[in-house]
């Protein structure tokens, strides 16, 4: 009888807990994730709007007579389009892409388009993945996106090699949106693993900008390659936060809000320590640039602010319940808001009237700051015992710019320095056995 009387109280407690959770999630916005990150500068962010326009330019059927140009135009010279491939050329292995020689910015750019909702082959690429299915470079990656990246590398390796050797002072940039962003992120990993096939191009000449990317690589890879891979996310974009199987996402487009709520509940109830320790869990790649333009319980859009970091904890782990979760994924909105943010940064710099020499010093300081933040993220990952979180001595443009405490050390030395201390008894037990007479002898194996 006493148990029956306690049921109403238990129901009230349960309802209050659910109401509290819903209230907290409704107040939780994407701005909370990056509120402690540093502000991005115009120098490091200036490439983003230009590359967004280049990806948009790839959707035009007639590049000489574009129909969907954003305000101000694409700023693209059709004569500099070196190569362009459509679905007929890619055989459905990857979305259409093009190679563009940007002589104004001394850049060789490979731009990959995003998911086409009318193409089954794009779904096949995105949905070809199971948890922990594919290992790469000491971590886990998205299986379908890796296959697409390897196909692009095999198809365009000779072309890129020729362009790199013909333009030794040009950088090599990979960029894409949505599904294309995941492809170029993994393509960057493939290129770094095969630098010899591109004429031994220096790692510091390689860059990647993944716009609204799918989660495509494990945390250790996301941190280790943060020196050359950057992800751009607009406010509440759902895809970089979606940890649920993408197959379930696209099966549930009719009731996407229900799926987002269930995913949000799952992520909220999962311990962060458990999420970080799971080596198979995929994340948005590299350094993160978060464009924030809305605030909780306020109407309208505010002047966009861009915050950046190489986070280990809180790397877009929670879905945001927002009516803009899907619209913020649109490339046209990312381009528009990134350009607004860049204009505000430049206007602020103009007001401050920074001389050229001071601007150069600021760029050097920015490089050192990024280097320190990159190393701190690696150390944080190692402290959390995230598998394969070390940074091999052969990697990293930041190590080339600035000698660190681990510079000159081998991979084994770095690993031994950061490995957990084990007890003396455990050490002896691992190396010795006790024979019948009670003496210690080396283990045979």
UniProtKB/TrEMBL annotation:
SUPFAM superfamilies: alpha/beta-Hydrolases (SSF53474)
Boundaries of every Mono-/di-acylglycerol lipase N-terminal domain copy: 10-75
Assigned keywords, A-Z: Hydrolase, Signal
Keyword Signal in annotation: yes
InterPro entries from the UniProt entry: AB_hydrolase_fold (IPR029058), Fungal_lipase-type (IPR002921), Mono/diacylglycerol_lipase_N (IPR005592)
GO molecular function: hydrolase activity
Position of the signal peptide: 1-19
Name the UniProt record assigns to this protein: Calmodulin-binding heat-shock protein
Organism: Quercus lobata (Valley oak)
High-level lineage: Eukaryota, Viridiplantae, Streptophyta, Embryophyta, Tracheophyta
Gene: LOC115956037
């Amino acid at each position: 009888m006493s148990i029956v009387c306690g049921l109403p109280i238990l129901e009230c407690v349960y309802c209050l807990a659910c109401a509290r959770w819903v209230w907290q999630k409704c107040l939780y916005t994407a701005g909370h994730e990056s509120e402690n990150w540093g502000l991005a500068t115009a120098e490091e962010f200036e490439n983003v709007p230009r590359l967004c326009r280049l990806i948009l330019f790839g959707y035009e059927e007639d590049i000489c007579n574009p129909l969907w140009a954003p305000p101000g135009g694409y700023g693209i010279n059709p004569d500099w389009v070196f190569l362009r491939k459509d679905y007929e050329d890619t055989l459905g292995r990857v979305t259409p892409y093009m190679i563009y020689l940007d002589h104004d910015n001394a850049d060789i750019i490979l731009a990959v388009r995003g998911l086409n909702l009318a193409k089954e082959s794009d779904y096949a690429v995105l949905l070809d993945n199971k948890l922990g299915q594919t290992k790469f470079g000491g971590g886990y990656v998205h299986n379908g996106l890796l296959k697409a990246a390897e196909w692009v590398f095999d198809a365009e390796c000779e072309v890129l090699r020729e362009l790199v050797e013909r333009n030794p002072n040009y950088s090599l940039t990979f960029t894409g949106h949505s599904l294309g962003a995941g492809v170029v992120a993994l393509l960057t990993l493939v290129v770094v693993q095969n630098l010899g096939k591109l004429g031994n191009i220096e790692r510091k000449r390689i860059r990647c900008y993944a716009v609204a990317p799918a989660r495509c690589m494990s945390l250790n890879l996301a941190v280790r390659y943060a020196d050359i891979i950057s992800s751009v996310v607009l406010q509440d974009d759902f895809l970089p936060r979606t940890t649920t199987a993408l197959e379930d996402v696209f099966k549930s487009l009719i009731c996407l809000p229900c799926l987002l709520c269930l995913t949000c509940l799952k992520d909220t109830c999962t311990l962060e320590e458990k999420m970080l320790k799971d080596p198979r869990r995929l994340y948005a790649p590299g350094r993160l640039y978060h464009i924030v333009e809305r605030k909780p319980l306020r109407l309208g859009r505010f002047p966009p602010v861009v915050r950046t970091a190489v986070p280990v904890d809180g790397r877009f782990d929670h879905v945001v319940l927002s009516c803009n979760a899907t619209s913020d994924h649109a490339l046209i909105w990312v381009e528009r808001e990134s350009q607004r943010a860049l204009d505000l940064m430049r206007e602020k710099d103009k007001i401050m009237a920074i001389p050229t020499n001071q601007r150069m010093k600021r760029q050097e300081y920015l490089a050192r700051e990024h280097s320190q933040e990159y190393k701190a993220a690696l150390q944080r990952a190692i402290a959390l015992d995230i598998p394969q979180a070390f940074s091999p001595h052969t990697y990293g443009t930041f190590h080339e710019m600035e000698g660190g405490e681990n510079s000159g050390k081998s991979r084994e030395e770095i690993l031994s320095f950061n490995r957990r201390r084990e007890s003396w008894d455990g050490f002896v037990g691992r190396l010795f056995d006790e024979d019948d007479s009670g003496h210690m002898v080396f283990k045979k194996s």
